[in-house]
Design goal:
- The chain is about 75% helix and about 0% strand.
- By secondary structure, the chain is mostly helical.
- The N and C termini lie far apart (about 45 Å).
């Protein structure tokens, strides 16, 4: 894993470059993973409810 991969993951997580300079690389990557998990739950919540027949507007 390169420094570039770590910083790109931090940017995906919404961290600034200054914040990332004071964090451990593993924590930055964990934050990116948490953000990706959150985004997938938000984006797939409505389609799953529609497929189940609930949440129709």
């Amino acid at each position: 894993m390169t420094v570039r991969d770590i910083y790109s993951g931090g940017l995906i997580a919404g961290l600034s470059y200054t914040e990332m300079r004071h964090m451990l690389p593993g924590f930055i990557l964990d934050m990116a993973l948490m953000r990706a998990d959150y985004d997938s739950k938000i984006n797939w919540g409505k389609p799953l409810r529609r497929m189940a027949g609930a949440g129709e507007e």
